[in-house]
Specification:
The chain is mainly beta. The chain has one helix at 21-27, and strands spanning 12-16, 29-34, 39-46, 49-60, 63-67, 74-82, 85-90, 93-99. The relative contact order is 0.22.
Length: 102
């Protein structure tokens, strides 16, 4: 299979931008963590609990390719770094995430 490309600018925690209405509607309160080992963790906050989804990821040019081992299926999402944030484009929808500091 060879080594998969990982864009190091993604590494760290990214929180859904709560000032962006489309992002709030689609994701709610989500934190994504990208690691240098190709792991992607979604933490979805829902009132009194947190749902965690563990995935793997790699990048191909301007796309994040993700796969969830418990439900194998590759998803391809375009990513753009702009205005000190991360914009994701999936199925025509653009959502925005902000890098967590600290």
């Amino acid at each position: 299979f060879g080594n998969k490309e990982l864009d190091s600018r993604l590494f760290g925690d990214w929180m859904s931008d709560q000032t962006d209405e489309i992002t709030k509607q689609i994701f709610g309160d989500v934190t994504m963590t990208f690691t240098p080992t190709g792991e992607l963790t979604y933490r979805i906050k829902e009132s009194d609990r947190v749902q965690i989804i563990n995935m793997s990821f790699w990048t191909e040019g301007e796309y994040i390719i993700s796969d969830q081992p418990s439900s194998p299926r590759k998803e391809k999402t375009r990513f753009i770094f702009e205005d000190e944030g991360l914009t994701l484009e999936f199925e025509g929808q653009r959502t925005r995430f902000l890098k967590s500091v600290g």
